[in-house]
């Protein structure tokens, strides 16, 4: 990861700009007082990066499709996600602001998860990145389903397939649809089954807004006890770095190749299409020991020399 831009206005440099070329006065010296040549700027780095958008919510609602996640968000906030009696109504995460007294938090409704989502079943797991940053997960269960407890296990397995950290987030377990008589009738039995697992679920009716205010308070409570996740490490900053001074001379098929960051960069920035530019280049390469190295490698005047993209004849 290059950087994590979690606050408005944050920025990161991902590529280095090229070096600026030296102007003509840089080339001036006692015996060469009025240089007419100047270097071109070096091309900047090019990088391809992938940008990942993550919504930032405090609490995320997870659950099977159709359990009432969107209905719950509607019941707790001014957000208006679509609600319908078939699975996969919600295709994209929706955020809402929940007010609890003088405090508020952001609640995210996401698409439903099903068994095998990590293998792409249903809508997959990709949207879970939007709740990766939530500090609390609300696990919503449909009390009218045959076995809400095993539904919960299915969803938790999918969560851990996506991210161990997300699976370990504190969960507020909520059983929905208690307005239905068959659900109301089994509240005691369900509660017992959960307690045996060490869980204390809250029973609500999202549709009728029963138990909703208590649930909002509970969420706010758990949120305030959950310290904000450790901030991500400082993103690496891209800084200009000095060019390496080492160079090598290699014999190649049709002559010689000079390799080395400083030498090649300097050559590529020189106006070698001009006689004066070529002279200056060789003068500088002489000072850096390149000409001597070419001589040692067996180069003779007129030999073909390559420095990066530059091709020249060696004046000897
Ligand atoms: N009786 C009853 N029905 C509910 C309640 N909450 C939601 N429903 C119904 O359950 C169905 C699904 O509700 P949604 O809120 O769309 O469920 P969801 O979990 O967002 O579904 P997906 O977006 O498909 O994952 C709808 O027909 C709702 O009217 C409730 O508290 N009681
Ligand atoms: Mg929905």
List low-pLDDT spans.
none
**Sequence of secondary-structure elements:** EHEEEHHEHHEHEEHHHEE
The mean pLDDT is 90
What is the rounded Rg?
A: 33 Å
Based on Cα principal axes, name the global outline: rod-shaped
Bound ligands: guanosine-5'-triphosphate, magnesium ion
Structural class: alpha/beta
Q: Largest sheet, if any?
A: 6 strands, mixed
Number of discrete helical segments = 9
In percent, how much strand structure appears in the residues? 15-25%
First-last Cα distance: 49 Å
What does this protein structure show overall?
The chain has 316 residues and is an alpha/beta fold. The protein contains 9 helices and 10 strands. The chain has helices at 69-76, 148-162, 164-167, 181-184, 187-196, 212-225, 261-269, 275-287, 290-296; strands at residues 59-62, 94-100, 103-109, 136-142, 171-176, 202-203, 248-252, 255-259, 304-307, 310-313. The strands form 2 sheets. A 6-stranded mixed β-sheet has the order 2-3-1-4-5-6, sandwiched between helices. Strands 7-8-9-10 form a 4-stranded mixed β-sheet. Bound molecules: guanosine-5'-triphosphate and magnesium ion. Residues 69-70, 81, 89-90, 109 line the site of magnesium ion. The site of guanosine-5'-triphosphate (GTP) has 24 residues, from helix 1.
């Amino acid at each position: 990861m290059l950087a994590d831009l979690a606050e408005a206005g944050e920025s990161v440099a991902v590529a280095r700009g090229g070096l600026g070329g030296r102007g003509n006065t840089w080339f001036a010296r006692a015996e060469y007082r009025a240089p007419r040549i100047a270097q071109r700027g070096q091309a900047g780095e090019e990088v391809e990066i992938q940008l990942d958008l993550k919504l930032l919510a405090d609490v995320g609602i997870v659950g099977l499709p159709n359990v009432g996640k969107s209905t719950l968000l509607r019941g707790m906030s001014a957000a208006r996600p679509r609600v319908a009696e078939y699975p996969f109504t919600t295709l994209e995460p929706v955020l809402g602001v929940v007010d609890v007294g003088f405090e508020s938090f952001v609640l995210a409704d996401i698409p439903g998860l099903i068994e095998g989502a990590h293998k792409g079943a249903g809508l997959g797991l990709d949207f879970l990145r939007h709740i990766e940053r939530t500090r609390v997960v609300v696990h919503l269960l449909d009390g009218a389903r045959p076995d809400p407890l095993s539904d919960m296990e299915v969803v938790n397995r999918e969560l851990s397939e996506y991210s161990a950290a997300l699976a370990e987030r504190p969960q507020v377990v909520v059983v929905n649809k208690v307005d239905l008589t068959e659900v109301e009738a089994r509240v005691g039995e369900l509660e017992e089954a959960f307690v045996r697992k060490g869980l204390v679920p809250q029973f609500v009716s999202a549709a009728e807004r029963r138990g909703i205010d208590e649930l909002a308070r509970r969420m706010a409570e758990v949120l305030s006890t959950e310290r904000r996740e450790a901030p991500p490490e400082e993103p690496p900053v891209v800084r200009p770095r000095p060019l390496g001074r080492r160079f090598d001379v290699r014999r190649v098929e049709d002559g010689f190749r000079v390799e080395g960051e400083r030498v090649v960069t300097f050559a590529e920035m020189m106006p070698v299409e001009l006689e004066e530019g070529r002279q200056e280049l060789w003068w500088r390469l002489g000072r850096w020991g390149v000409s001597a190295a070419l001589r040692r490698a067996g180069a003779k005047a007129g030999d073909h020399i390559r420095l990066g993209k530059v091709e020249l004849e060696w004046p000897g």
